[in-house]
Amino acid sequence: MVEVSVIWLVLPSGDVVLQRRDKKTNVSPGLLGLFGGHIEAGETPEEAIKRELSEETSLDVSSLTIDYITNTELPHPNNPTTRRKIYFYKTTIDSDNFNVFEGAGSETYSIAELKRRKDIASSAEYFLANLLDL
Residue 110's domain is classified under what CATH number? Predict the structure, then answer.
């Protein structure tokens, strides 16, 4: 089983910042997804999300309050017989004015806009459908 940590970045307005995945990536190419990635050997899910956010963005992770939401198992987008254990986190950031070092950049949307989109990665879809009220 693959284990990953992902994070929902929320602005004070309630809008959400997602990562536009690179079209050449293996998982969810070209889709909007949550920032995050694989948990490395010996790493806790929280350590992984802090490392991933530091690697993927210019956000100062040490200044963020990162809240654990839940974890769940979902099928892998490339192979439905493989399960992924996904740890979901959430944090509020002051602005969407930060650098993105992985993927094709970031995009900001209201929840209503996101619910109408058809280009959302499975982990972000799960968050929208099941975890918004937490």
Answer: 3.90.79.10
Question: Whole domain around residue 19: which residue ranges?
Answer: 2-130
> Domain tally for the chain?
1
Q: What region, left, alpha or beta, does residue 55 occupy, with left being phi > 0 and alpha being psi -120 to 50 degrees?
A: alpha
CB distance 69 to 131 below 8 Å: yes
Query: What are the pLDDT tens digits along the chain (134 aa)?
Result: 889 999 999 999 999 999 999 888 887 889 999 999 999 999 999 999 999 999 999 999 999 999 999 999 988 777 878 888 999 999 999 999 999 999 999 999 999 999 999 999 988 998 988 887 75
Find residue 30's DSSP bridge partners. Answer: none
Q: How far is CA 107 from the centre of its chain?
A: 12
